[in-house]
User: Fold this.
Amino acid sequence: MAILQIVKEGDPTLRKISRPVEEITPRILRLLDDMADTMRHANGCGLAAVQVGVLRRVVVIEVAEGELIELINPRIVAYSGKQHEQEGCLSLPGKWGTTRRPRHVTVRALNRNGEEVEYRGSDLLARAFCHELDHLDGKLFTDVVVGEVES
Ligand code: ZN
Assistant:
């Protein structure tokens, strides 16, 4: 396990599209472990692989302590409702803004064993799903901010 360096705003890597994981290799498992360590070390509640410079569709989220969610090749399959809440990003330290997101989001992905899993999240978890999956397509929360970005 290791703490990885987090890519910061201004680095063009953050705007790149991540590729699907075709095979869950020991390298991908180690990436998941290192990403969880890095996210916790930075006091974040989500991290996408692109934020540690790896252009693969891999995400970790932990909005409740000890409830780590690992997502490989995630996709949103359903969403409903609306929320306007404050959001930040480990790649944009010190910046905050109010985003427009669905209130409930259902995500399907592979887990580390290659099994299809489904998660339903509301409120903060729904925001985290949207935020982290956006990263896989090169999008940042500042792209969907309503009004001003605060810093
Ligand atoms: Zn982010």
User: Anything to note?
Assistant: The chain has one domain: 12-143. The longest helix spans residues 26-41. The pocket of zinc ion is lined by residues 89-91, 131, 135 (CB under 6 Å). The chain has a mean pLDDT of 96.
